[in-house]
Amino acid sequence: MNSVIEQILAEADYQAVRLLSILRAIQARYQHIPQPVIEQVAGALNIPGTQVIAVCEFYSFLHLTPQGRYDILVSDSITDHMLGKASLMNDLAQALKVGIGQVRADGRVSLNHTACTGMCDQGPACLINGIALTRLDRARIDAMATLIESATPLADWPGHWFAVDDNIRKAGLLLSAAQENGAAIEATLQRGLQQTLAEIDISGLRGRGGAGFKTAMKWRFCAETVADSRYVVCNADEGEPGTFKDRVLLNRHADQVFEGMTVAAAIIGATQGFLYLRGEYQHLYAQLQAVLAQRRANRLLGNDILGHGFAFDIEIRLGAGAYICGEESALIESLEGKPGIPRNRPPYPVTCGYLNQPTIVNNVETFFAAAHIAVNGGVWFASQGTAKSSGSKILSISGDCARPGIYEYPFGTAIADILADCGADDVLGVQVGGPSGIFISNAEFHRVLAFEDLSTGGSFIVFDHSRSILDIAQNFTHFFAHESCGFCTPCRVGTALLKKQLDKIVDGHGSAGDVVELESLCQLVKNNSHCGLGQTAANPILTTLQRYPEIYEKQLKRISYEPGFDLNGALDIARRMAQRNDAAAHLTQVED
User: Fold this and answer.
1) Would you call 113 helix, strand, or coil by DSSP?
2) pTM
3) How far apart are the first and last CA of the chain?
4) CA distance 540 to 51
5) Does 492 map to a domain?
6) How far apart are CA 361 and CA 346, in angstroms?
7) Confidence at residue 512, expressed as pLDDT on a 0 to 100 scale
8) Dihedrals φ, ψ of 215, to 5°?
9) 274, 335 in Cβ contact below 8 A?
């Protein structure tokens, strides 16, 4: 074991910032992180053993106790549940003779849930030893059990089981624009760095990960900060349930994404970049490394890019199952080999990011768009969209529709038009922006895709009338309670209380006072949490409670009231009391 660990450490150049990569390699070899290894790794990297343990405990794909040689994680996304995930999970447990959340006694197989794997357009999906397997059904489960019992290596399993389709249904401004490799870099260097930054500004490009910060402004702040070095980071940790567009862009258009990163590096003066790839996309890792190698061979990366004396290179770092690492400062912490806990801000990454140096962190789609703008200019991009939302948006559409997949629309497109394109009928509502976004009812389909109306990082989940509003809110609330990093009390405790309180109501044990308390908890978590996770964790409850109060009310336990008792009036009084923060003293009186 010592020699194996030494080899893994040597391949990582004994760099503490690569701790997560080192632990991933050890996990893949031994199905866990053995205790003696912790001391060996800590000593070799000159870091405390507690840091190694903290990283192991933080990321859901790392374990301090052995997992099965076939480690199966089934996606628990709402879209997988809509496709029968619950019964398939029980079928898997029965076929493999292992309990859910357990390792079989012989150590051959382990089975558990995991968060959304980014395969929402081709679920139910799972990960086997980190590799995505799509379209689970009973026949496939039985065949998997046979292969596992015969100890057949994954490499000898049917290849089509692991096929991940792109499912591009509608190409717009960006997806339909062909671009030669190197064109964006050449255009940038020929036009001039400041002139290209001006084109990015003219384009009105805003971050496509959800926050919508102006890209040119972020790059300018970083470039103007005095520093020894600067860094470019591509955030490919799209963990928001229902989102998979970045997966498709990296599979189909990786060159243009890397080209956008290279353009950004030239503008801000960076020589090193990172692609932070979510652990669920491990199946893309080898081919992305091959793309980078080819770009180096073609002088599109390296010490003298296209003969202009410009040096820049990109390293891929894999995540390990932590939704919070989609937040840019948590991602930077992870890049540095630490638990992905969001930093206090300010300072912001543009002035104090990776290794305390100025760093820009942008989404995959943002860099993809920037590469096209570098070639075609800002006016070309701004010719589509609205006054406040220029260009196009790439959506990941899943759920109750005939044609799930990738769609690109100009900003300003009505939700009704999107639903018609994807073949959605009898629609109850749409979750726009994933669980952290907003649930809109079928009375709101006139609304438009835009930062000034419905903003989204890309997730677009359709629900028809066969679905339960409470089941949807419950699934999302459980997701946030599981994914809280635990750093701040309002989120760590608050998301757990939201889960408990909503479960009580869904199970039919809640009273009117419990709904009021649920609303009060939502506001507490939303207004006092440290980062975006906690600040949006209550959205599934708040947005559905606002639109469907009668559904929550109907779920309350039956209480006999005196004739003429005004329940709605009592609830209104309780809500106003809650707003004065003295609800606890009065709720009992209201219920009585």
Assistant:
1) strand
2) 0.93
3) 67
4) 34
5) yes
6) 15
7) 86
8) -65, -45
9) yes
Distance CA 515, CA 508 (A): 12
CA 309/CA 236 separation, integer angstroms:
29
With a pLDDT cut of 90, the percent of the chain lying above it is 92
Give me the CATH number covering residue 530: 1.20.1440.230
What range defines the domain where residue 124 resides?
70-161
pLDDT in tens, 435-457: 999 999 999 999 999 999 999 99
Instruction: List, in order, residues 6 or more apart from 480 with CB less than 8 Å away.
Output: 435, 495, 498, 533, 537, 540
Cα 389 to Cα 474: distance, rounded to the nearest angstrom: 32
Convert the pLDDT of each residue in 381-392 to its tens digit. 999 999 999 999
What does R_g of the chain's alpha carbons equal in angstroms? 25
Both 41 and 83 in one domain: the answer is: no
HEC readout, 472-501: HHHHHHHHHHHHCCCCCHHHHHHHHHHHHH
Q: How high is the pLDDT of residue 592?
A: 37
CA-to-CA dists, residue 160 to 80, 155, 165, 279, 537, angstroms? 19, 12, 10, 21, 37
Q: Show which of 430, 464, 498 is a domain's final residue.
A: 464
- Among 447, 464, 481, identify where a domain stops: 464
Confidence of residue 582 (pLDDT cuts 50, 70, 90): very low
For residue 360, the tally of other CB atoms under 10 A from its CB is 28
**Is there a single domain that holds both residue 359 and residue 265?**
yes
